[in-house]
Each structure stands twice: as C-alpha cells, then as structure tokens.
Amino acid sequence: MDHSEPSSPIGLGQRIRELRVRRGLKQQDLASEEISTSYVSLIESGKRAPSDTVLGTLAVKLGCSTEYLRTGRDQHEMEEARLKLAFGDMALRNGADGEALQTFSELLGGSLPLDAAMKRRARMGQASALEKLGRLEAAIPLLEEIFADRALAAGSDEWCRTAVALCRCYRNMGDITVSIEIGERAMSKLDSLGLDVTVDHVQLGSTLMGSYRRRGDHTRAHLLAQRLIPLAEKQGARAARGAVYWNAGLVAQSRGQLAEALALTERALAMMAEDDNVRHVAMLKMNYGWLLLQTESGDLGRAKELLEGAQQSLAETGNADELARCEFHLAEADTALGNWTEATAHAERAIGLLGSEPRVLAVAARAALAQLHFLRQQNDLGKQVLDAATRQLRHFPASYETAEYWRRIGDLWRGEGFTKQALAAYDAALSATGLQPTPNPRDALSEQASR
Questions:
Q1: CB count, 10 Å around CB of 415?
Q2: Which residue in 408, 396, 392, 406 sits closest to 435, CA to CA?
Q3: Which PANTHER family did the record assign (predicted)?
C-alpha cells in the first residue's frame, strides 16, 4: 500500500506509474484524444493534478477504481475492511472474544487498507477482546497507545471509552493508584472542556467511583455518586443511570449501608433490564445476590438463584474475571448453605478462570477454598492453599482492599490455631491501611549498642 499523502499529486502519480508498469503498459498506452503522452508523463511525475474526467479515463485503462488512484485504497477492499470491523464488533457484543481478537488482529496485520480511524477502532477492539479474555497486561499497552494518539479528540466518546477501559484495566490489575490518576485526569479534562454530558462521560465517572471504593476512599466515592446521579438523570439514558446507581450501590455497601445498597442495586437492575446489555444485567444480578449474602436475614436461596442466573449469562457474554467473580460468590453461597462439595468446585473454577496473571480476586478465591478444606477436615490442603494466598497477596500494593484480604487470611490462620501466621497477616492488614508499627525503644538501644 502506498504510504504517500493520499491526495498529493506525487502520491497519485506514483500509483499510476507503478500500476502501469505492473500491467506492462507504456505511457503512450494511457494516452487518448484528451490525454497526450506528455501529459501522462507530467501526471506521473507529480507536476500535474488530473481532473476527475481524466482520472476516470486512466482508471479504466489501468483496470482499477478512481478511489484507488486518489488514495491508494481500493473501494472494494475498503468495504471488505469495514465489514470485517463490523464482524469483530458483533463478535465482541456476543461474547465471542477469541473470534473478535482474531478478526481485529488479522485486520491490523493484514493487507486490507485501513484509514486512521479504522486502525484506531481495530486496536480498540483488540484491546477490548484482550481485556474480556483476562489478558490485561496485553490490553493496557494497546489502550495507552490509543489514548496517546493526537488524532483522538479529548472529550469525544471514543476518548472517554478509552479512558474508561484504561481506568478499569489498571484497577482490575490491582494498581488502584494509577487507575485513579487516569480517571481523575480524564474527569478534570472533561470539566475544563465544558462539554454536554453523554453516556460515556457518566460511565467514566462511574468507573472512577469504583476505583475510589476499591482504594477504601468511601467518602470521595460517595461524593462523586452524589454528583453523578443528577447528571445521569438529566442525561436520560437508562444505561447511564443504571451504571451510576450500580456503583452507588457498591459504595453504600462499602459504607456498611446494606439496605441502601440493596435498594440502589435493585433500581439499577430495573433500569438495565430494559436495556439490551445481557452482560450488564448478569453482573447486576451477581451483585444483588452477593449483597443478599451479606445481610443478616438474607435469603440465601434467592441469592444463589440470582448468582446461578448470572453465571449462565456470563458464561456466554462475560470475561474470565467476571465469570470467576460469579463462581467465587457461588462458593460463598454454597458455603453458607452447607453445600461444601459444590462450594469447593466453584472456588476451584474461579481460580482456574483467573489464570496466572495477578488478581486480588484470586487471593479471595484461594482463601475461600482454604476455608472449605478446613471445614472438610482437609487441614494439610487448607494450609497449602492459604500459604499460596498469603504469598500471592504480598505482590499487591497496599490498599484498603488488600487490608480486607489480609484480615480475612489472618482470621483463617487464627481459627486453625496458627497464631504466628495470623499475627503476621494482621500486621500486614494494618500496614496496608497506612498504620505503621510502633517503634520499640529496646530495638533502638540494641542498635546503638551494636555500633
């Protein structure tokens, strides 16, 4: 494909000459009553820009389209590329993530002509497929490249979607600090532009809200929710409103307001149920079931029913991380119901779905599996799995979320009589919240004496 400027006389002339030589034609073979041989020579050297009529005549003689001569892109090939892009997008929507990844990768590495916007769309599709397949470390560099593209207009829906994906991927990788930095910069940029609020703008705010929650910054998450709810209501789209109520429900849960969390999540589910996004409805069902598990008088049967419904939908439309989270909550439900064999199978499936990439959720699943081994009197297996969860959690940066998991691991060690391991886990939990150990004067004196 010719990489010269599509509309320049030089690029056009080069294409005419290369195609003529390839066809085994001479300049005089392109001449006619309207076009002299010398004029053909001037066109090929880039010294003359032909009219549309002359270009049409040359295209017929060269057996190509005028679109190809003007841009280097064949019209039929461009249409084929557009169809492949549409197929990749459809595969993503239908949950065929592997097929979507293959389609976008073939487009980017193949010979079909793609303009700048089509390339960006294919790269975004590739990144989305990688994210849904759980390959976050491969998706992030692609998203960074797209976001740094100067041709991507700040504030556009495409720009917002890229910011949302980056914020979400870093959060799911456990790097909450970077996730929040990206989200805050993007929100600040939108505020400075003074643009009308769109669904994608609201989605960016909702994603940032989720990152605040994961960091343990519940006050900031709550304040952002209070700001976004009126904007979402004004914007009007059910998807935008549902996304805000969804995250607001999670924030309420983090603040210990379970009744409010259930009401907000139920409202979000009602909005999303009228939309066409099966995946979002499934995730809301999963969240609603999870919230029911946490209430003292929760309906465990109803919670399991919601989670099983979510599992069926996510198996077709969700990514590995989402399906693993559903399996983890099913393990919690079956543990509470006394179905320990079924719970063990769910926990093991969750770990298998998460693969080898670092995930905080994998720590939670291993902790749940260790607890089940202990309940089933498989103490050696329980200790092995809990040791693995402990080792894995050490690789994550300190945050409120990691503190919660250290506390859970500490409780499991203590419950089985492993006091030393329990104290180490509790110490790590305190450090993750920013509380440092109190200095011991004896240690300072010993250090001075050794000098």
A1: 11
A2: 406
A3: HTH-TYPE TRANSCRIPTIONAL REGULATOR (PTHR46797), METHYLPHOSPHONATE SYNTHASE (PTHR46797:SF1)
Number of neighbours of residue 234 by Cβ within 10 angstroms: 12
The domain defined by 276-357 folds into 1.25.40
Phi/psi at 110 (5° precision):
-95, -170
For the chain, give the longest Cα–Cα distance. 105
Helix, strand, coil shares of the chain as percentages rounded to 5?
A: 75, 0, 25
CATH fold group of domain 9-72:
434 Repressor (Amino-terminal Domain) (1.10.260)
| pLDDT per residue as tens, the chain (451 positions) | 333 344 456 788 888 898 889 888 899 889 888 899 999 999 988 888 888 888 888 988 888 777 778 777 666 777 788 899 999 999 988 878 899 999 999 999 987 777 788 899 999 999 999 998 889 999 999 999 999 998 888 888 899 999 999 999 999 888 899 999 999 999 999 888 887 777 778 889 999 999 998 888 889 999 999 988 888 888 767 777 888 888 899 899 888 899 999 999 998 888 887 766 788 889 999 999 999 998 877 789 999 999 999 999 998 888 788 899 999 999 999 999 999 999 999 999 999 998 877 788 999 999 999 999 999 999 999 999 999 999 999 988 888 889 999 999 999 999 999 999 999 999 999 998 888 777 777 665 566 666 6
Tell me, yes or no, if the pTM score tops 0.90. no
Q: Which helix (H) or strand (E) covers residue 42, if one does?
A: helix 37-44
Alpha-carbon span 36 to 182, nearest angstrom: 60
CATH number of 369-451: 1.25.40
CA distance 82 to 322: 30
Same fold, 276-357 and 369-451: yes
